[in-house]
């Protein structure tokens, strides 16, 4: 649970280039800014008081334990101005720091918040008892006593604080158990938590008892590992947010005891004399139960009873605190069925209950931002009414959401929220029956469950829905039953059911039933990686005697589109579960009944964000219309004024004349730049950072307007909207692609947007330049930076433009790709074409470019052929038959210096000594001299021109 509060509004700035456009739209922009500023919440203050508090718990209530706490108190809270409180619990493997941001935001909303590290974690003492009523729950009761004694906390009676309890996962289970055990709790918000811990870790989807359940070894192992040390377990177990690092930034130095707190060690060590060193900080009975289940793969009655002791299932009728149950759809640890069972049990006692499903969970985090905002709003609304006593009753309507796609603005995921008046449970309001067919199929159970199918990865089950999935079934180890393509879309919300028949020579089978959504191209998606494990006993050896069994699949929220098929897969193995060690072969067939899909006709939830989006869209549309009108007028005027061709530059791809760019604040990025690019040339634009290179290129591409000077392309004056821009291909300011399209689709979309004839595109040449192979068919959101760079260069070359302008084209490329890019650019500058390339890799420019333009502090300091800029060299490169002997000989010559060279060559600074004399000395020593050439690099010339420490004027 990252933050139960509303997020601050997003502020966006709109920048327009021509000053007349700014002047024309300033009123609208100021209005939008004023509205957004008015909506911004104020900054609320608080103070944080860390302390080690000693409480007494255990079956007799006399066992002391030190708890590491932080108390967050809003500014202004006092004995004369008391405030309600929130007890804030963290998830398994976390500490009080895991929920620090939540605590700070709740304090900003006017609540006194007490966050603490549960026993067995972090700096708190004691052992982990899995939210035992005698230990963790009784610890929380003593913290309620501590809150009631604080003079700043509002009370309902002596010793009874006005308090809500909020927690995710492990903390959510505590909230439920505490409310059942202590009637002082006024409201609770349990998130992504369990109903029956034995059923969560030993699930059985045909209704069998937990003792016959299939052990969820993947998650159990992470839980056990998370409690095996001083609280540094898996961060994701701490709810829907990652655990924060240890420490307490709210104070300097070690925490000091709170008033009335007893002394505590806060060592965080496992208790001395632990029964089993493998138990870490787990209590001995919890550790023993885990070790038995993990060894046998089965739950015995004693282990099940222990897990149920820490489960709300048996005490739901005692919960009188109004309850908001928030459960994640992307959760293979505690699926939606756990919240459903809690809701029904609490409501049966007449307690107000509200259920909210969201797209996150243990596998999906907070979900998309707009969905997590909905959860935060519901949380604060619940607390404000039932704890603070403000606002209307929230009601008991049911809300849920599903992934809707990508946000066009930030490319993040977006969820659509829905509501219904009554909670339909897992069966839905209605049902859709779909026939799935297929022959009876033999399936093999592999020895020791290896190899195993993959349905989900802990903390990443949502990948099954969002990224094509991680699910994979092993050939020979699964059976498939498939539907015909759907004639219309189905909105599934709840637990589908399906009937199956199975036979086994052993009389028993462990199976994993999955429901895939298969698109028309055959891509199969397993929603959120959810799977239904079943253990069937008393099976016949032959299929003819097999009886149908009904399997209840995990609840999902998904829209299955028309044309898609539904596939039921029955697998014999799954890497997340323990399966029988002995190899066996089962036979599986579809039952007589259809696949039943629960549906809910939810009403979309109108949100403030949606309303503001429409308002802002209207404002932006008005601005856009004005911009289009101004641009059209400007283009028409420029075209009318600049239809002539300058005869001197008619055959010159690019002529830049006395270019100057000065910004409104007086900053001069380019003061006087003047150069030409001719056909057949590859011209390198060089300069230190801030020299004006990027500004020059931006002016050239019409991204900003010059203050003075002219640019001619084939004799035509360059202005925004000029037709001559179609003769330029460019990569300036990095590549930008639509992430949901493949590389090839992006190239095609770009070409269509140019409006040029389809026949003028050169896709084959562009794809060869990109060198992406089959990856060109992958979505660009999966591309590396180098792959995106190569695709952008191919896009720039797509129409084989006569002038190619590239800004740092080798950025992100590896050495072989850089070498290939060098050859591509040299080949490109033929048949009248030309290239202008800006780069900071001087060695590449030297090997690639025919000409260079060196800019420093907004001015050109040198231009011309690269060899002329490099010029004569005081150093000489010798190719000799024996380099080591030559070094010894030359080292004895007065005035001659042998230079160290990274490439292992013999480079000599003659310092005025005649080269013939040096050669003669080598020959006299019996050393053969094959070649003598001047040695100077472009880098040497560059540093001589701009200086070793030259910095530009701060290029924009």
UniProtKB/TrEMBL annotation:
Region (Disordered): 233-275
Alphabetic keyword roster: ATP-binding, Hydrolase, Membrane, Nucleotide-binding, Transmembrane, Transmembrane helix, Transport
GO MF term set: ATP binding; ATP hydrolysis activity; dipeptidyl-peptidase activity
Keyword Nucleotide-binding: yes
SUPFAM superfamilies found in the cross-reference section: alpha/beta-Hydrolases, Galactose-binding domain-like, P-loop containing nucleoside triphosphate hydrolases
Pfam families per the UniProt record, alphabetical: ABC_tran, Peptidase_S15, PepX_C
PROSITE patterns assigned: ABC_TRANSPORTER_1, ABC_TRANSPORTER_2
Name of this chain's protein: ABC transporter ATP-binding protein
Protein's organism: Micromonospora haikouensis
